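Lecture 7 notes: from sequence to structure.
We start with the chain below.
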Amino acid sequence: MKKMFFVVLCITLALNSYAFGNLYQLTADVNGKLEIDGAVDQDVKSGFSLTSEFPLLKLKGFDIGIGTEYQFDRDLSNSAGNFRFWNKYITIKKPLFKTKMHAMTPVLKLGVASVESSNLTFGKLDEKGLFYALGIRYSLGNLAYAEITMSVNEAEIAGTSNDVKYKKLNFTYGTKFDGLAKTKKQIDSF
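Predicted structure tokens for the same chain:
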């Protein structure tokens, strides 16, 4: 049911993005590590996520928005079980440098997460958690966005106070569906 809701939400937002300039991204993560209090850390196989971000306002040079990231199932490298997080967050960005066609922007993401897990050897994860990420985004006009972030999802093992942290390095590519028209206007203005 959650997957169907997410797919319908993405399609609806994609149709609306033409007017509003929402950003859609595909993320591949590497070097995933599940750090577990009181247990041996687990390596996590690489995986993919779908991300949507929506600009809300500009405040004293900062761009503030909201976003959501749906991670597909992540498998552990050395044991059975899988898990996934669905992150909902705010974004705070401030361009380091910006020209008509290029921008380099630090990105901070802070939010909450819904958690699903199954068959993990150390126990089931709580259904709620935290999410935060820090990285840098490179923009080529309004057409292409590349981003590298270090992100952390936190949760607890259900029925205990043992914390679990899922840390990973993310490589992201994104675009705005209205980006082609805006980029053409920028190129024509040179």
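Points to note: The longest helix spans residues 2-20. The chain has two helices and eleven strands.
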